[in-house]
Amino acid sequence: MSSIEKFISKPPLIVYSSLAQLRYLVLSEGIPATGDKHEQRLRAYIWSILSRTSMEHSTSIYMTLVNQGPPSSTIYKKIKNDTGRTFQTNTKFKDIVPEDALTRCLSCFAWQTQHLYEEDHSKKNISTYVQGMNVLLAPLLYSCPSEPMAFQLFSNLCYSQIPTYITPNLTGVRNGAKLLDLCLKIIDPKLSKFLNDNLLTAEIYGMPSILTLSGCNKPLDHVCRLWDFMFAYGFHMNILFIVAMLVTIRSRILRSDSPMNLMKDLPEFDSDEIIKLGVGFLPKIPSKTYSLLVRHLTDPDLFIR
Amino acid sequence: MDVTDTSFEEIEPSFLRETDHIDPFSQNNEPKRSKTNKIRPEALQSRPYTLQGLLAAPLSTASSGKTAFSDDIKTQPSWLDDTDRRNSKLGFETTDEEEEEEEEDEEFLDDFEEFRNKKTDFDEAIKTRFGTFSRHSPDNLHHLSEEFNNYLNLGSTSKPQESQHASNTLRQPKSMMDLKPRIGFQYEKMKNNSRESRLKNSISYGNLRNSSRNPISVRFKKSMPNMVSNIIEEDHDSGEENNDSVIKRRNPSDYYLSKFGEDREHPDDNDFIFDSSMIQPNFVPKHTRGNLPMKLSPSIYNIEQHNNLLTPQLHKRTNRNRSNFDQLENFRESNTSTSSRIPSGNLNLNQRAATYRMRTIKQQIDHNTPVKKGDMYYNPQSMKWEGNEHILKKFDEIDSSSTNPLLIKKNKTDLEKIENSKIRSKSSRPPEVVGDMMFDEKNLRWVSIHEEPPDPFAGIDDIVQGQDTDMSKSPFLRSKSQTKSDILSRSLAVNPNLRKYHSFGGIGNKYKTKSNYASEENRNTSDKLMSTYTIGSKLLEHSYHEENRWNKKVGAWFLLNNKFNTTGNEGDDHLNNVSVASMDTNDYMYEIRKMVLNSTNN
């Protein structure tokens, strides 16, 4: 039993400080890669603790939503269109996560959002379905021991962690793209200039990685470890991690005749390296920019030029 | 009268008394008992004597504490070896010493014990009691004064021999109340040496001691608790008065023993040698008694094969069914036994009455008691009466003999008689027409001659299979895949808050419309949808299991959910609490920056 598992098994004395300790443990030791059911559970437990997602009644909530069947045909078609393509080449993922599970979870989220809207019309800025949600959901289904738990985490992630990302006009994602440009300019001005010269803004190349919180990148196990960190310290770090990914392949981008092809499908990354790099960028990021990074995930009124 | 009070006071005296006065009585009784009772001394010795007394009293004399005393006296003496006796005496002495120091209650017991001594050994009792008063010699004065003081201490002013039980009733703790008077009564009887009065007395006496008095019933108790306990109880109810006499007839030794106001049931209780013949109720004829595998428990033993092990109900029935000769045999047997002991016609009548009453035993049917009645027997496993399956064969014969169904045929003849004038066509062969209606033999229904009957299902669409099964499933029968309604009802049961936004019917309707919409569009798609949105019981079980596991492992992190869950939702009111995190809750997002900046600054 790893020390992190021992730590979460003990009831926390003071939740606030225990959470800080858990974050540090995630940073220093990390959660072992998803090898078996046991580690899978451990990851899901830690994610639920860090995101403050209670799994109590998760099954009954999920079953109630599943019982409502498919959402409206347009949403269902959109969902069905995307779920089939989710990590199509990843056989390990396909073995663990059936397409039906993705469809069910996304349908449930659509129903949930609809009910939420019916109850409170001020929450209309959250979409029932946004393209890319399937990829956002995939690592959760991949890491959680049960569908209801994955759905609960997904629901919490969307509503609480990145609510601006799933609005109909993707305000948060656009702001994220602006921030990605900004951060790249701060950290690697040469690469930033090169991309600008090729008219490659983050809104062109970075949207998938921003929206899916790097979930679209390979390999999935390293995505999960990246998420470990982001569940601990915040998903705003995703922007810096994307910068780190670009920096790791900067020489190839700079040499490439068609950098867009390279950046559209980023090569496999190493989570440890990316985390080290990303955290290393922090001192260079001005406080104001950093607070924008934090705010852009949740502040619907934020608009970055 | 029968106070089933096995209080501590009841138990202790019995112990005291038995320890004290073993010898005289045992000397009197030993020869008889050694003949009549098959009791092994080893068994007695194996148990600590005192414990035996204590245990025996409440167990065997559930109806009264009195029997405990009388029983124990008989039980112990002759077979106890020296060490046991010594132990018992020791025990007595210590208790005696304690009593002197004890409070009034203990003194009561002391006195009671003294009294009991007299009662137990009646010869000695008479000697000591009456002798004391007859010869007021100076030698005995000291003893008398001591005794008198003793009574004074107890607050009793009455003379001992005059109102033994009267004083006792005053003095006794409540539980003793029912004991003492009887003892006194008995004492009087013994003085008169009158058997008749003894018998009368035994109305109450026997009542108290029935279960242990009757050696047969004692043995029953041990071997077949289930059946026999019922029988014994019924005995008390029905044949209370006759019981003593009946028992006496059965066992001559009982009569002699009764002289001493005691009986020997306790030895039986304590150390019981099983005799299969003893398990037979007397009303079971002799020839049915055989070698029975009695060591088997009733539940594993196929009782139906052994009529004599079946319920009394059955015996009653078989008695009736048996030949007259057997019945006569039955009576003769009892006649000889009675005449040998008590040559009285009255008792014979009594006995008949007793046996008659014994027949009317009600037997409670439980899983252990197969009941047989005539050819039928009750199968406790299947909870069915069996044995008349052949009756059903009649119906098979009827079916095979006539091609036309029985009821329709009858109706046809009835119709011919009643509505003869209306029948147009009387042709013997079908189709049969009555009025405008024609009988459709194939479908067994009346149809109109003129037009095709309208399809009653014309306006109703075919129901999608999955939905149908969902709605019609019984909640008690769990199908292979958990149905949606099941899931819903279960989830609602788990989380009643969900009812806020989903009523049960509402969801069903919504679901229906969706599936209808899908089925209109494409059947195949709807089937696909069904499979997608149907969660199997295995998956559901797994989900609940994982949820519980989570709760067990890290549930403690969410105990103070309200205080610290600023960003997320609460489980029980999930949707309402989903909120967009505000800025001030994002402190942790600055944590990493602070850490890194601190480390670089240092």
UniProtKB/TrEMBL annotation, chain A:
It comes from Maudiozyma barnettii. The keyword Transcription does not apply. InterPro entries: Rab-GAP-TBC_dom (IPR000195), Rab-GAP_TBC_sf (IPR035969). This is Similar to Saccharomyces cerevisiae YMR055C BUB2 Mitotic exit network regulator. Belongs to the BUB2 family. It is found in: Cytoplasm, Cytoskeleton. Residues 37-234 form the Rab-GAP TBC domain. The chain crosses the membrane at residues 226-249. It comes from the Eukaryota. GO terms for molecular function: GTPase activator activity. Pfam families: RabGAP-TBC (PF00566).
Automatic annotation (TrEMBL), chain B:
Residues 1-43, 64-107, 154-174 are annotated as: Disordered. One of its GO terms (cellular component) is mitotic spindle pole body. Residues 154-172 have a biased composition (Polar residues). Residues 94-107 have a biased composition (Acidic residues). One of its GO terms (molecular function) is GTPase activator activity. One of its GO terms (biological process) is mitotic spindle orientation checkpoint signaling. This is Similar to Saccharomyces cerevisiae YJR053W BFA1 Component of the GTPase-activating Bfa1p- Bub2p complex involved in multiple cell cycle checkpoint pathways that control exit from mitosis. The lineage of its organism: Eukaryota, Fungi, Dikarya, Ascomycota, Saccharomycotina.
